[in-house]
Amino acid sequence: MTHNRRATYNMLLRSSENRSVPFCNCEYPAVTRSRHTARKIERCRCGEDTSTRLDWTWDVDCGHPDTKITNGTEIVFHPVYSQGTAVIRGTQPLQQGMHHYWEIKILSQLAGTDIMLGIGTDKVDLLAHRFKFASCLGLDDQSWGYSYRGLTQHNNQLKYYGKKFSQGRIIGVYVDMFRGVLEFYLNRRSQGRAYSNIPRDSKGCIYPMVCSTSAKSSIKLINAASFKDSLIFHCMRVISKYPKLLEQVQAIPGLRRHADDLWFLQLREPKKPDEFQRNNLLLEDEALLCGMKKKKFNEIVSQSQAQAPPENISEDQIYENMITEEDTKKQPLNGTRTISTSSSSEDEELAWMISREFFCNH
Ligand SMILES: [Zn+2]
Fold first, then answer.
1. How many A from CA of 194 to the centre of ligand 1?
2. What CATH number is given to the structural domain containing 162?
3. Predicted confidence band at 340 (pLDDT cuts at 50, 70, 90)?
4. Could you tell me the distance, in angstroms and rounded to a whole number, from the CA of residue 1 to the centre of ligand 1?
5. What's the gap in Å between 27 CA and the centre of ligand 1?
């Protein structure tokens, strides 16, 4: 790692001091050198029964010599000690033009150079770093990875992405091979789009991948499914955003099956608090807001003068008023990033049409 790269890496690490919490409250067995653990702890099965579909498993045949794979789903990396990086890929490449979603449960505590989940082409040499500790996924343009440190990597470029993860977390990987989009979920919450440049031509075969440098680190594939890019898929994606509409669809026996099959579309991004939106306003928004802030302050003062004598008005209150107002108006700030997107209003319109066509009594 060059000096500059290490500096960037350290800077990114510092900025991603956001740890995640486990998916459930179960206790996990601790790794022990003794043959008998102090007490037997039942293995946690939480989240494993949502879907048991496994369209592919981990490839035992091209398995790394420093790993132990059980039932094609559970991997123990470096079962004795670690001397480098082990990379494992799925049995099948991800088919073009389809939507793929799989989930991995982290069974052990993670530590060390890196543990990454993601995808890579058939050109990735699984043994290249057998005797080197590396963040293997995303080292070049042939793979894309999400590190347990909360960073993503592609083409040797690290970027801050989401939360850190360790034992007890469920990481979902969604790959849209129709649009070339890669997205990661943590404990069934989307963390947003990680990459949108996944090749969609039929030349390269892209496989699910995972890599680890950590001795006795262990993960389990709990479900893996692929779906055709179809009208049903897109309708379900829109319907899933509206809980009442989804409820109505689930009440229809012929449609319930589709809602159940496409369960992962119902997983939601956490609602971002106003503070998050405020902190994420672009600098140009900030400049524009300064002018607006002055205007708004005068408005608030004149309003409060009409009702009561002016009190101390905090900056937060002023911003809050502006954001709520802009949000309700659904009008973009001129030339700046907007809070509401046009795609969501299109979705709302489509949901309204579906609701009207299917559920209104004509
Ligand atoms: Zn549990």
1. 27
2. 2.60.120.920
3. very low
4. 38
5. 7
Q: 2 is written with which tokens?
A: 């060059």
Q: What is the pTM of this model?
A: 0.72
Distance from C-alpha of 308 to C-alpha of 133, rounded to nearest angstrom: 66
Q: What is the dihedral of CA 343, 345, 350, 356, to 10 degrees?
A: 170
Query: Distance, CA 45 to ligand 1 centroid (Å)?
Result: 6
In whole angstroms, give the CA distance from residue 264 to residue 259.
Answer: 9
Q: What is the pLDDT of residues 60-91, one digit of tens each?
A: 887 678 899 999 999 999 999 999 999 999 99
Tokens of 124: 């990735």
Asked if residue 65 is part of any domain, the answer here is: yes
Q: Domain span at residue 63? A: 43-228
CA of 88 to the centre of ligand 1 (A): 25
Q: How far apart are CA 191 and CA 160, in angstroms?
A: 12
CA–centroid distance, 109 to ligand 1, in Å, is 15
Three-class SS string for 302-317? HHHHHHCCCCCCCHHH
Q: What is the tens place of the pLDDT at every residue in 86-133?
A: 999 999 999 999 999 999 999 999 989 999 999 999 999 999 888 999
Q: How far apart are CA 43 and CA 37, in angstroms?
A: 13
CB 116 within 8 A of CB 153: yes
Amino acid identity of 343? S
Q: Is residue 108 part of a domain?
A: yes
Ligand 1 geometric centre to CA of 168 (Å): 8
Burial of 346: CB neighbours in 10 Å, binned 0-12, 13-18, 19+: exposed
Please tell me the distance between residue 23's alpha carbon and the centre of ligand 1 in angstroms.
7
Angstrom distance (rounded) from CA 312 to CA 4: 47
Q: How far is CA 102 from CA 156, 207, 270, 311, in A?
A: 25, 12, 20, 54
The verdict on residue 221 lying in a domain is yes
46 alpha carbon – ligand 1 mean position (Å): 4
Domain count, the chain: 1
119 in any annotated domain: yes
Task: Please tell me the distance between residue 44's alpha carbon and the centre of ligand 1 in angstroms.
Answer: 4
Between the CA of 22 and the centroid of ligand 1 the distance, in Å, is: 9
